[in-house]
Amino acid sequence: MKYWWPVLFLLLVSNASSAQVDTTYLKAVYDRCLDFSEDKTDSLLYYANFIKTESDKLQFIKGDVLSLRLKGIYEEMSNNFPRAIEYYLQALDASRKLTEAAYEKAALSDLAIVYANIKEPKKAKEFYLQAAKISKGAGDVYDLVNTYNNLAVIYTQLNQYDSARILLSDAIRYGKPYESRIDLSSTYNNMGNLYHKEKKYDQALTYYRRNYERHLGGESVDDLWTDMLNMADAYNEKKQFDSAAKYGQMAMKLAQDLGSKSKESDTWSVLARLAEYKGDYRTAYGNLKKWYQLDTAIINGDMYKTIAELQERFHAKEREVANKLLKEEVEKETLKTRIVTLLAIALALIGILIAIAFITKRNANRRLKHINELIVQQNEKLAELNYEKNSLISIVSHDLSTPFTTIQVWGHVLQSEPGQLTAEQQKALSKIIQASNNGEEMIRRILDVERKDIAEHRMQLENFDLTIFAEEVIDSFRPMAARKDIHLHAEMPYKNLFLLSDKQLVTRICENLLSNAIKYTPHGKNVWISISDEQDAISIKVRDEGVGIEKDDLPYLFSKYSKLSSRPTDGESSTGLGLSIVKRIVEEINGKIFCESEPGKGSLFTVVLKK
Predict the structure, then answer these.
(1) Per residue in 84-143, pLDDT tens?
(2) CATH at 44
(3) Which among 173, 176, 309, 474 has most CB atoms closer than 10 A?
């Protein structure tokens, strides 16, 4: 079990305002907020707004950067990652307008951390590279070591081991002269894990032992446990079972002393693998059972919490009914107010009883105030319902994938011992794993639509060459086509053809259309993608020799969850969401999409995008 140590650091504000007004208290509030723990998340939002308000009063030009960054940290702690990214991007833009390198570097690091947390290492790498360039130019060794260390973890996740090794070596080279005040433990640990992944266990042990000796007698018991477990795992792979048992048992004792169920669970997993390598399958089974019991207990704890939250969401329906009644009451009060207002006008026109007219008008104002209060209550209820809906989607995204992951893990454990199962059982096990993969994919695709991530996507326009772009997309699908002996063809213009649009969204359009074309095309056939210049627009066409689409199905082709009569030719999964997502993306970038198809003769999808 490998433990990566990315260094998630927060950069402090170091420059004072050039204005003569004293703004030091605002920077002090900001610095204090950076140290807030998760139980003070709500306070972050309060102080972010406070800094914004006070900065406007004092004309403190750096206040926007401080406020936006605190709002981003608040959203990140609340697990609202799209909103956090939006604030961090605004902070990055504001810092660049100020030409403040420290603020720009902080925003870039924040963005990289968020993208790493949501499992998008490629985007995280982009921002870490920009931060590293600034750090190197500034000459801050501590900052540079941390940035290189974080970048190396991302490269390792992307299986780019050579790049990761260069960065970790640079981090050690820059930090070694200052090791008395810069802790390089995380760098050594990450270097050891890199060698471990490459199955170079002697080199990995060199770095694990260095950290182990450093942490012996120190205050960081968690780090010492990680060192012991890493060493036990490495000795396991080297088949040096006495050493593996020694450090594994030391790690177990430390985990039990700490009372950490997760650490104890991970240690049982390593000890189970040790017994398996030694051929002691009874002990291996016992250790694996203990790991399973602890791991299941941890998962169940989360599941119980989820169930309680889901039950609370159930009552949202009752509140929705109450909200409708409140709306009807508002409408009745509005009607009464209109009658009273008309009566007041009539009385004023005929000049009867000015005092009565005055009282009537005053009563009308009171009713208007009452109506406004009812409207405010209605808006609060609607906001609460919307928040609960978004929370439910977040819970589903986080928790409902857990059962499918558990099924896949245990399925692969059983598959690793083929001699224990009959051919029929192996076949059934393969179908179970496939079904769990399909279920996890279905959840991901449903959430892709329901969270409206297309609407929340921050448009990033760039001018890119469609000829090069199309070749890159086709190359990424050649392995998938090769499995079905399908030939991919590209029909490109003879000149460079540029498009100003969001490259990420155009990529998603082409990937969905090419994936569908390959799914619904039989073995040995052809799939084409063509790009053409249509004067004031660009035309992207994807054509196949697949099964085609029935005429009656065409009107429902781009509907959510639509199930058509056509089926993939090789049993591939299809949720009915792909084309609805494509249509939404095309409309988002002001384009149009058409389909022409005939059963047995294939399909032609045409996307038209304005230049």
Answers:
(1) 889 999 989 998 888 888 888 888 888 888 888 787 888 888 888 888 788 776 667 777
(2) 1.25.40.10
(3) 474
Q: Shortest CA distance to 225 belongs to which of 258, 271, 197, 183? A: 258
- The span from the first CA to the last CA of the chain, in angstroms, equals 51
514 and 583 co-located in one domain: yes
Q: What span, in angstroms and rounded, lies between the C-alpha atoms of 129 and 108?
A: 9
Amino acid occupying residue 29:
V
Q: Whole domain around residue 431: which residue ranges?
A: 403-451
- DSSP symbol at 451: T
Q: Is the CB of residue 562 less than 8 Å from the CB of residue 572? A: no
Instruction: Encode pLDDT of 137-165 as tens digits.
Output: 666 777 778 778 888 888 887 888 888 88
Instruction: Write down the pTM of the prediction.
Output: 0.37
- 188 and 47 fall within a common domain: yes
Alpha-carbon torsion (144, 146, 149, 154), positive or negative: negative
Report if residue 212 sits inside a domain.
no
Count: domains in the chain: 4
**Length of the chain, please?**
611
DSSP line for 512-575? HHHHHHHHTS-TT-EEEEEEEE-SSEEEEEEEE-S----GGGGGGTTSTT---S---TT-----
* pLDDT (0 to 100) of residue 439: 75
3-state secondary structure of 45: helix
pLDDT at 429 over 70: yes
The pair of three-digit structure tokens given for residue 487, joined into one six-digit string: 């030939």
Which of 357, 374, 399 terminates a domain? The answer is 399
Is residue 485 helix, strand or coil?
Answer: coil
> Could you give the C-alpha distances from 490 to 21, 463, 478, 530, 595, in angstroms and in order?
63, 21, 12, 6, 19
